[in-house]
Structures are given as structure tokens and as C-alpha cells.
Design a protein that fits this description.
Elements: E1 3-7, H1 11-22, E2 26-30, H2 34-43, E3 45-46, E4 50-54, E5 60-62, H3 65-69, E6 74-77, H4 84-91, E7 100-103, H5 116-123, E8 128-133, H6 138-142, E9 147-152, H7 156-166, E10 171-176, H8 179-201, H9 206-227, H10 231-234, H11 237-248, H12 253-262, H13 267-274, H14 279-293, H15 299-310, H16 314-322
Parallel strand pairs: 1-2, 1-6, 2-5, 6-7, 7-8, 9-10
Antiparallel strand pairs: 3-4, 8-9
Helix pairs in contact: 4-5, 8-9, 8-11, 8-12, 8-14, 9-11, 12-13, 14-15, 15-16
Length: 336
Amino acid sequence: MAKVSVIGAGSWGTALAAVLDYNGHEVTIWSVMEEEIKMLKEKREHVSKLPGVKLSEEIQLTTDLKEAAEGRDLLVIAVPSVFTRGTAKNMRPFVGEGQLVVNVAKGIEEKTLMVLSDIIEEEIPQAKVAVLSGPSHAEEVGRKLPTTCVAGAKSRDTAEYIQNIFMNDVFRVYTSPDMLGIELGGALKNVIALAAGMADGLGYGDNTKAALITRGIAEIGRLALAMGAKYETISGLTGIGDLIVTCASRHSRNRKAGMLIGQGRTMEQATEEVQMVVEGVYSAKAAMGLSEKYQVPMPIIEQVNLVLFHDKPVGEAVQELMLRDKKSEHDQAIWE
């Protein structure tokens, strides 16, 4: 049995706390919001973000970050990506040398273009930092529907330790040394999912979505390779797997926000209506920044940015993608 604290009491943090409790670990959930912790104590359920998933009485709940962090075998950071740096900075005084911190959020910091595990390493240099990601909607994980994820770490031993902590009969965990690829796949797929939602909002069909998923993973893969990640990672669970589920699922907040934009809402109206953090909106500008920094063309992500931040009509964005210069599908495919 391990002592684990989940830092962040949103839908994903709550679902993972339930997984860890199911596995027999000593689990604490931390939130900065007193009302959220009060509600969880009273209801043993996150009524607004994860209804129907009951938390056992064994799970401890706190707003005291020191209490949550000190002496734990594993700290799971599950706050929205925009709060990752601030939360990690606040955690730093309470994290011991070599203490394991696992990032489970998905995003890229707009100002620095850093992935979240790098931010955590910068803010908590004494920690051992890893990542857990994959096609894993909290709503399904909380209901114990079969799910697979990938634990990424710099050492095999660390990745296998995380695998052993999380894995059970309904939550399968693979291991990988490619932390950067895992982080990029998880963050950039949210931007493509916004595009898929926009297509749904316009009333387009399965052909359109298949094109967006396939060409989207090509964009993500080109950038990942340019940044030093492995294409195998992007073609696996945390790339194509996560992209498929986020583009197609009714649980996807990115797809839902995109669909509302496709139906005529502004970006602000759509995110307000979703009532949860839409990570793709925060990652879109960062994705464009990485595209420019590494000189990797990312036309879908470029058009998403124009729609989100420059009021470009969604229909015009789709038309521009369709009327781009003629190309081969694979640059490295050579005619005999």
C-alpha cells in the first residue's frame, strides 16, 4: 500500500483518487477551494463534475497543501494546465528530495512553450517527475469502464512503480521513456478536437472527422519529431488513441466547445457554456508558437487559432483547408 495525494479535485483528479482507493492505497484529495472540499466531505461525490461516482469514506480530503504533500510516496498533480505552475510553486516547500510527482494534466504553457512535466521540474527541482496520460475520460474511469494509459518516466523503475500503483483489472497501464511525446500528444490533440467539434457544429459528417483525425495526427507527429519525441508514441495511446476519443466522445469538453463555436458561438460563449476548463483553447496559441519555433507547418492548428482568436468564420477555415496547395499524403513516400 502506498500513501498517495491527488492535488486537484476536478473530474480527473477525483476519478484517479477512486482508482487509487480501489487499488487499496491510502488516498488524500487536495483542493484550494474550501467549498469543493466541503461538498466532497458531505456528499462523497463531485456533484457538478463527476456525478454518480461515490468516494469511499477512506479517502481523506483537505485544503492544507502541506498536509497533502509531506511524507507521501506519490503526488499526483491533477489541476488544469493553466494552474500547474502556480500549484507546483506552492508545493515546493513541502516536497522532499526525490519525492515522486506525477503530472496527469494535458497542456502547454503559452508564454514559455513548455510541457507540464518540464514546468513541474523547474518549480520543484528536488522532485522526481513523471507523467500519466492516455485516452481516459474521467466519466468512464470513475464508472470503472476498461481504460488504458501510459506512464512515462526517465527511468524504467519509476515508470514501472507508477504502473504498479495505478494498474488494476479495469485500468491498464503501459510504460514509456518518452515523456515529451506523451505530453505533446495529450496537449495537442485537444486543439484538433476543437476542430472536430467545429466540423460537427457545422453539420459535417464522418468523412470530415476522419480527415481531421488523420491529418491532425500527422501535424502532431511532425512537430513531435522536430522536438525530439518518438513517432511511436504519437501513433500509440497518448497520440492517436487520445485524439480519437477526444474528437469523437460525448464526454469531450474540447469537442463540445468546438461544436458550439461551429454553431455560431464565440470562443468565450462556448467555454462559458461548457462550464469546465477547455484545455485546447489554452494550448492552441502555444501549439502555434511551437509550429513557428520549429518551422513545422500545422495548417489545422493554424485555422483553429484564426477561428478562436481572430474571429474567422468556421466555414471559411474549412474551405481554406480544403483548397490548400496539392500535396502528397506522405512526404517520404517515393515513386519507383
